[in-house]
Amino acid sequence: MPAEKKRPKHDLKLVLLAFIAVAAVWAVLTFSGGKNENVYLCNYDSDCISAGQGCCDCNMGGKATAINKNYESLWNSKISSECGQRACRAVISNDPSCYAKPKCVSGLCKLA
To answer: Does the pLDDT value for residue 60 go beyond 70?
Structure first.
């Protein structure tokens, strides 16, 4: 009988890296776009906060959106991973979303 080959240790590292990559893709897909995702769900106005809508928030010429406060860290991670070191304008935005208050409307966080 032939001797069994030992698996190199780097195979385990590759499997672990693949798992992390799949988890990251899942997180991005889960929390991007759709207004019916958990990140937008709420029961009370106090569940909602204002957050930067994209790579540049209101302090950098961008826009705001409303999300569930329990997902703020995940939201910020998603924005960071999508935007990287993208440069934004050093200007306070006067977009209406930047001055709107986050509210829970029909079970979804919205700016009003």
So the answer is: yes
> What's the pLDDT at 96?
97
* Residue whose pair of structure tokens reads 């930047």 in the numeric block: 98
H or E element, residue 49: strand 48-52
Residues in the chain: 112
Long-range contacts of 86-94 (CB under 8 A, 24+ apart): 86/55, 86/56, 88/55, 88/56, 88/60, 88/61, 88/62, 89/56, 89/60, 89/61, 90/60, 90/61, 91/60, 91/61, 92/58, 92/59, 92/61, 93/58, 93/59, 93/60, 93/61, 93/62, 93/63
Residue with tokens 């994209």: 54
**Percent of the chain whose pLDDT exceeds 90:** 62
Domain boundaries, the chain: 10-111
